[in-house]
Structures are given as C-alpha cells and as structure tokens.
Specification:
Subcellular location: Cell inner membrane
Helix content: over 70%
Oligomer: single chain
Main location: membrane
Number of domains: 1
InterPro entries: DctQ (IPR055348), TRAP_DctQ (IPR007387)
Radius of gyration: 21 Å
Structural class: mainly alpha
Order of helices and strands: HHHHHHH
Number of strands: 0
Subunit structure: The complex comprises the extracytoplasmic solute receptor protein and the two transmembrane proteins.
Distance between the termini: 38 Å
Shape: globular
Function: Part of the tripartite ATP-independent periplasmic (TRAP) transport system.
Number of helices: 7
Mean pLDDT: 88
Strand content: under 5%
C-alpha cells in the first residue's frame, strides 16, 4: 500500500483540526465576556448565544475527521485490545461499511441540501434579536462530511494494509495519550533494566 495518499489525507485533516481548534479560544473569550457583561456591567450581549453555538458547532463538526485521523474516537477498547491487529482491522473494515459510510454519506448529502437552502434564503438566526447570518455556518456540515468521507477512505486503506501485513501502518503523530506515553516509557525503562 502506498501510504502517501493516507498521509496526505491525514495531513489535511490535521491542519483543519488544528485550525478550527482555535474556535475554543474564541468561544471561551465570548462566553467570558458575556458573563462579565451580564453580571458585572448588568448589560448582557445580544450576540453571545449565537456566537457560542456557532463556534461550538463548528469546532465539533470540524474536529471529527482530525479525531478519526488520530484514532481518538471512543470504542470498546477492553475487548478490542485483546484481538490480534488483523482481527481488529477486519472488524473495523466491516463496521466502516456497515455504519460509518452510510451515516457520513447521508450527513454530506442532506447537509449539502440544508446548506444550499440556507444560502438561497440568506438564512439568519431566529434565536436572538441580533439575528446573525448563519448560512456560512451551515456550510460546515457538508464540508465536515466530505472530510470525514476522505478520512474514512484513509482508514479503510489502513485496515486493508493491516489485514495483509498483520500490523497497523504508522500514523502521523502530533499528540499522544498519556497512557501511551507511560507505556512507552515503561517498556524503555524495562528494556534497560532500570526501575520504573
């Protein structure tokens, strides 16, 4: 298997995940300002609620493909870990085609129509008097769907590789779970004969 396509998809989704990760800082700043304005100044804002759900929704949608690229979504690890890598890959492959792709393709297709309608009517929020435009926000739905489909293809290629070779291909690395760091540290110290 040529890992270039897989790494290319991983790289794009990593970049997007990190770029949209800045939404959390904007969300924190907006919420903090709203609390200050409401309780200290006695002058609540008209825009904070809209800003909060738009920023959180954008972050949530655009982090999905990044999390999948990092193998960070929740699964029944206590069973899954006991399987051989090839068994894990076979299970993942079946589950991608049974559940992942049907759901994500539907999200993309319905999201496309949803966003197109929103753009056609120049939709505005009805939740607050400020009524900000929300059609750019609704465009995030098909974009996130497309990125998840691409990452799903990368994951299927990983499964095929693992089934053929008996081990998982490498992933791009930028963050690691503390548990993995400790396992590596323990195995290195154990191999050197040092006490943990």
């Amino acid at each position: 298997m040529d890992n270039r396509l897989v790494f290319w998809i991983d790289t794009i989704n990593t970049w997007l995940g990190k770029a949209f990760g800045w939404c959390i800082l904007l969300l924190t700043a907006a919420t903090s300002y709203e609390v200050f304005a409401r309780y200290v100044l006695g002058a609540p804002t008209e825009w904070a609620f809209d800003a909060a759900y738009i920023l959180y929704g954008t972050l949530f949608m655009m982090a999905g493909a990044y999390t999948l690229a990092r193998n960070g979504h929740v699964r029944g690890d206590w069973i899954y870990r006991s399987w051989k890598p090839s068994t894990q890959a076979k299970s993942d492959l079946v589950l991608y085609f049974l559940f992942f792709f049907p759901g994500i393709v539907t999200m993309f297709y319905v999201g496309w129509d949803y966003a197109a309608y929103s753009w056609s009517v120049k939709e505005r929020s009805l939740f607050t008097p400020a009524g900000p435009i929300i059609y750019p926000f609704k465009t995030i739905i098909p974009i996130a769907g497309a990125m998840l489909i691409a990452q799903g293809i990368a994951e299927v290629l990983r499964c095929i590789y693992c089934i053929k070779h008996g081990n998982w291909p490498p992933r791009l690395g930028d963050v690691e779970e503390l548990e993995q760091v400790l396992q590596k540290q323990y195995s290195t110290e154990g191999a050197n004969g040092e006490k943990a």
